[in-house]
Amino acid sequence: MLATEFPDKPAIKVTDIAPDYQVNYKTGYIGFLNKGSDVTSIGISYFTGWDMISDIHVTHTLIVAGADQCIEADMANNTVKVCTLSKYFNDPNCQIFFRKPIFFNDSVGYAIAHKASLEVGKEYDFGAILTQGLSGSFPGRMLDRLLTGKLEELLGNLLNHPDKWICSELVAYALDEQLFYRDKGILKRPNSTISPQELFQDTEIFAPWKHSQPSETKTVTETKTVPVTETVTKTDSGTDLICK
């Protein structure tokens, strides 16, 4: 696939690999989505260059619940639901990045997924989305300075519905309910004020990125692109960030 490029920065090198449950993603891993017309990707991939993580813009997050299952708050359908991961794996206009929480083991993973599953069927929280939109606006940022960084929390208290969810709020909640992660990193803030991007970049909740060594390389040609090198690998157990 083609790497994303930024002015005066080297390209982010992204490599596609086939989804392999229990090898490059597991129940309890957190998925982050980057969608756009400039993305060409099939399967799961990872990227090299941890310092570039902030250059990847994610807009949605979910919790892995099985080999082809995830739990997510779906704005389009106004509900928290269980859906397939394959719809993301097979979408060439979507990258999915999996991050592994620190101190992860199977018990922790199932506890994260179970906590999220208890919210299935509840409605989407449009008030929380409004909170993030208002606090991210230019007037909102100016007002936030006057309120010493408390605007988003104040709006969250006013607009957030305690029994409805947005995607990042649901994921933050499922993590925050585990003793390992409670009030760590970005989770120190109210769950409803946390964006997918802020979760994705957190360095305290998730294990640090470790490079994987490819077990096999081959050259492939994608439609409407120049030939690129695809690395086929099973990532080691220490690798925490996998990208589709």
Q: Would you give an account of this structure?
A:
This protein is of the alpha+beta class and 244 residues long. 25% of the residues lie in helices and 22% in strands. The protein is built from seven helices and ten strands. The chain has helices at residues 86-89, 106-117, 126-136, 138-146, 151-159, 167-176, 196-200; strands spanning 13-17, 30-35, 44-48, 60-66, 69-74, 79-83, 94-99, 216-220, 228-232, 241-243. The strands form three sheets. The protein has a six-stranded antiparallel sheet with strand order 6-5-4-2-7-10. It has a two-stranded antiparallel sheet with strand order 1-3. It is globular. The chain starts with 12 loop residues before the first strand and ends with a strand. The model is unreliable at 1-6, 134-149 and 211-237 (pLDDT under 50).
Which properties best describe this structure?
single chain, 244 residues, alpha+beta, 6-stranded antiparallel beta sheet, two-stranded antiparallel ribbon, 7 helices, 25% helix, disordered N terminus
Give me the count of strands.
Answer: 10
CA-to-CA gap between the ends?
10 Å
Provide the low-confidence segments as ranges: 1-6, 134-149, 211-237
Please indicate the percent range of residues in DSSP E strands (runs of 2 or more): 15-25%
Q: What value does the Rg take, in angstroms?
A: 18 Å
Give, in order, the helices and strands.
Answer: EEEEEEHEHHHHHHEEE
> What is the typical, i.e. mean, pLDDT?
74
Q: Which class do the helix and strand fractions yield? A: alpha+beta
Q: What best-fitting shape do the alpha-carbon axes yield?
A: globular
How many helices? The count is: 7
Question: Order of strands in the sheet with the most strands?
Answer: 6-5-4-2-7-10
Characterize the main sheet: 6 strands, antiparallel
Helix content: 10-25%
